[in-house]
């Protein structure tokens, strides 16, 4: 089976996690800003799409080169072996982006790249008229950074954060792959308690349960490459999915709780939990942060509380942070991981974090304030 140069794209700040996931799957990796490079066959492409919890997309690198003129861009694009990836009837939309480059007009860049690909395919397939583009979708991207051109074919389709279980959401939901990143950064072991005290639509507890059962996060959705009959042999997709399903441990008992002060959000979380097939693994309950207490030890708290971006909300949010501090600080065997864009969080919580990690929730800079517990043996 043909080997491809591949990249898994990721949000800024979690590339190292994607690299770790790929290494755990058995791949050699190179971590870069916003992406991780690795190599593999179409089986590996399907495997990565199914298993990556923290990545956005898996792409095949068609080619990369330097280009400062449209002529260079056209000629070097046309020279690539497009026919090895694209059938004559391929639907080939071209997305583009450009940073700090001579070729900064993105619509023109997209048009030139599309024209070069069409020219190459027309020559190879002996077409004198327009290419039909009536077949499967092959989403292409041209990304230029400091005059370096990277041409890729997206194998994922809808971003990997779309697991397929989110039937409803609240006001500012956390993307599923970011929630999974928080679970992984918390170094939680499935035999320990896990609590999200401000769970909203339930994304963090659901991602924890998928992780705890070793369920492939992409198992209940499809990927655009599964329609590529010229590249994906018959039965390969089913084989990879069956393999993934066999690795899930549905018998492990999990102690996962999600709380929220808003009963409406709890209803939404329960609906999403049902859609994910995890009803018996997570307990959702309407409860304010200040009213929670536990006698359990060695647990993990992962929370994405409101940030109080509007001035009118700030006091309420700061009071919430104070309540968190009062309740969580005495829980010395528990580790706490709080994600917020409020850089004054520690002041209101009442203690300095063991460690802070910068993460981007979409375009928003946030910090993960980590308070490490001392486990009782």
TrEMBL record:
Pfam family for this entry, one: UPF0020
UniProt domain THUMP: residue ranges: 44-155
The keyword Nucleotide-binding is assigned to this record: no
GO annotation terms (biological process): methylation
UniProt keyword Signal present: no
Molecular functions (GO terms): methyltransferase activity
Keywords for the protein's UniProt record, in alphabetical order: Methyltransferase, RNA-binding, Transferase
Name the record gives this protein: Class I SAM-dependent RNA methyltransferase
UniProt cross-references to SMART domains, sorted A to Z: THUMP
